[in-house]
Amino acid sequence: MRHVKTTINGERSEFLCDDGQTLLEALRDVLQMTGTKEGCGTGDCGACSVVFNGRLVCSCLVLAAEAEGGQVETVEGIAEEGVLHPLQRHFLDEAALQCGICTPGFLVAAKNLLEQNADPTETEVRFWLAGNLCRCTGYDKIIRAVLDAAAEMRGETS
Amino acid sequence: MSASADEKKYRWVGTRPVRPDGYDKVTGRAQYGADFALPGMLWGAVLRSPHAHARIVSIDSSEALAMEGVHAVLTGADLPDPYADDFDKETRHLACNVMAREKVLYHGHALAAVAAATAEIARQALELIHVEYEVLTPVLDIESALSSDAPLLHEGLKTRGEEDPAPSNVAAKVEMGHGDVEIGFGLADVIVEREFTTQAVHQGYIEPHACLAQVEGDGKAVLWVSSQGQFAMRSLTAGVLELDLSQLRVIPAEIGGGFGGKTTVYLEPLAVALAKKTGRPVKMVMSREEVFRSSGPVLSTRIKVKIGATHEGKLVAAQAFLHYEAGGFPGSSVQAGSMTVFGSYALEHVQITGYDVVVNKPKGAAYRAPGAPMAAFATETVLDELAEKLKIDPVDFRLANAAVEGTRAAFGPRFRRIGLVETLEQVKAHPHYSAPLQANQGRGVAVGFWFNAGLQSSAAVHVNADGTVSVVSGNPDIGGSRASLAIMAAEELGIEYDAVDVLVADTTSIGFNDVTGGSRVTFATGMAVIESAREVIQQLRERAAALFETDVENVVWEDGRALAPGLKDSEPLDLKTLASQAGKTGGPISGRHSLSARGVGMGFGAHICDVEVDPETGRLTVLRYTAVQDAGKAIHPSYVEGQMQGGVAQGVGWALNEEYVYDAEGRLENPGFLDYRVPVASDLPMIDTVIVEVPNDGHPYGVRGVGEVPIVAPLPAVANAVYGATGVRFTDLPLSPPRVLAGLESNGKS
């Protein structure tokens, strides 16, 4: 067992894990933070997307032990004090989710995009989110929600 | 965009409020199948066959059982014997699919399960279970399954629907039609006949199958599971384990996609059996590889279609032979495929023959409009070719032959009011249909048809003391149905949408419901909610009558208030006031309703697809896509559009990329999202939608099911567009770059 000290969504966190355990397993099975989802375990679907030390990653491809001293951001940290992030609001207002299993990963990935590029084109959004699979929506409403949230965050719409 | 024929004014129906479960689903709070844990919980894992076809000689689990941390090993010998005389015959194949007995019938077939302290120990223990196999020759396609010297998957299997059959790999033959096709084809000026194939594809839900089972001291079991129906999980699990239904409570998790694939059981009976054996809660979660190898995809098909028409463009005869692979056990979607193959058109002479063929692949499961997309691929491609030969616009050709109210369907009954003509007219009128195309681009149109289901539903509506309302449903919410149920309850009661919450209850907390499937929840469960709300209104009128000191006949319910129009000085009483006084006027106010839904509205869609081909590589790009569909009445238009867009995306994936690839021994070579490639965001354009509203008079608001229709048309719409771009009629899916390139080369275009 390895003792890991890390920061998750701005809060200091400690946990025990096996050497072979992934960050995804530590989040879900050790810390009971089940907002981050497992769709494949091989880095192909993006349901487990988290931001690790500023980079968008699949948490199923990161060892839990690597989180030592690092910063992890998950879907649970996107709303602040119960107030939804513009991305979360636009996902709801524009029905950008159906079953919702891929939604945490899309929100984490889209937030990371908008922090680097406040005014992405539709094509840029589509390629940034190409690592996140959604089987319900055909992506249309997801892409629109991200573009509309970006516009709102730029102050272009209410 | 919507094209409505319905003038009724509603307050909530047709609006787009936020779904009741929305907050939980954007914050990570919603609990899906794998999100549950209990103290003392063990992890289960399943040993799966490395062979596509083999006899199980022996299973030795002693070494696995001796491993530290292993609590139990389960094999078929620990479960009720499906071949016992008193075992339910309808459940026999399911039980053998859940856990192989005597033979394994596909690569990935379960044959033992372990419960251990951790998931890792459980996986390691699987390697210590020693199985001796007698490997048999696998049967891997329709051709070899039908050959006279084919190995038999099931030695006693005889063709249902065939007179005096010998044992074979054909489980069933279905026949339907009317008229006389020989006469019909004799009237034809032009006949086109082609044979089509499609490959196995998977629903591709992002959430793998997952469940958690616990057995109480008295032997009663509780199962938390992600599925399309807690009642189906209960009856199927109880069937395999021979439990009374009252001994198993199933609590529905949120479901991360199903598309038909989560209507049957795989892990659930094993988890309950392991929990019984160990006395501990047992959690089981499939890996993605297990989902591909061992759950229920839809398998390959071979369909021959022949259609004749006159010079004037009237269809005179149609004939189809459909072979659908069922997988290791009987039961493909060939029946529905046969019923839909000519379902959209008026035909005097029609003959359809379908065959259900077992092969050494996983037992297929339902996938969104089961059986229909492949059948539509065949018919709509042949119609496109006929239209071209006749020099008639392909939409006009379909309009001239479209089924209308009163048309006798190829599968028997006459259609009630349907919206195919209105849908096709919207296609013709859409700017997409006449937009210019560039070189290497093509446009295709196609029609999709699906029956939609009614089945059984129960719902309850409870009025809370503060005037808010709780709706209780028994159908897992896959795509926003809580919102549509809340809209209908608010509409009936005349109250605020935000005053309504919707709970999806467990199997002991609401009456029976069939699965969330068949595009039936907003239609059928919606009617149960509407009737429950009407029962609540009746009670509210009675309570108000008591307070008004008048007869209930003198009280009406309007805009959320009770009024006694004939009574002087009677102030209207709103729901909140009546709710607060319920204790004094007769107790809690609560309505419930159960039904077996009648009046299903059949659904039609028509799609326009533009593709561009890269002649160097054979790669196809979908440039523009428009889906038009008759929804009857869109309760929450955003979620109707979402169904249309999602169905299109799945259909485009089926047409362009997706396929199971097997090696010569029947091992699946691409059991992961890297090699089984579903469409990603950068593969698709925006998907334009037009909702047509031809009301279904079988539903108070006119609702037709909408979930399945949109996956039917994309296969032929894409293929017809590719013909436009290349001049090549492709009859085999998927249209992956190597296949397209080969087609171009044989046509001298590359």
List keywords for this structure.
heterodimer, A: 158 residues, Ubiquitin-like (UB roll), DNA polymerase, domain 1, 2 domains, 5 helices, 5 strands, B: 750 residues, alpha+beta, Aldehyde Oxidoreductase, domain 3, Aldehyde Oxidoreductase, domain 4, five-stranded mixed β-sheet, globular
If you had to describe this structure to a student in words, what would you say it looks like?
The complex is a heterodimer of chains A (158) and B (750). With 158 residues, chain A is α+β, with helices and mostly antiparallel strands. Chain A has 2 domains: 2-76, Ubiquitin-like (UB roll), CATH 3.10.20.30; 86-153, [2Fe-2S]-binding domain (DNA polymerase, domain 1, Orthogonal Bundle). Chain A has helices at 23-30, 86-93, 103-116, 122-128, 140-153, and strands at 2-8, 11-17, 49-52, 55-58, 71-73. In chain A, strands 2-1-5-3-4 form a 5-stranded mixed beta sheet, with helices on both faces. In chain A, a hairpin with a 2-residue loop joins strand 1 (2-8) and strand 2 (11-17). In chain A, helix 2 crosses helix 5. Chain A is globular and about 50 Å long. Helix content of chain B is 28%, strand content 24%. The model of chain B has no long low-confidence stretch (mean pLDDT 97). At the A-B interface, helix 2, helix 3, helix 4 and helix 5 of A face helix 1 and helix 19 of B.
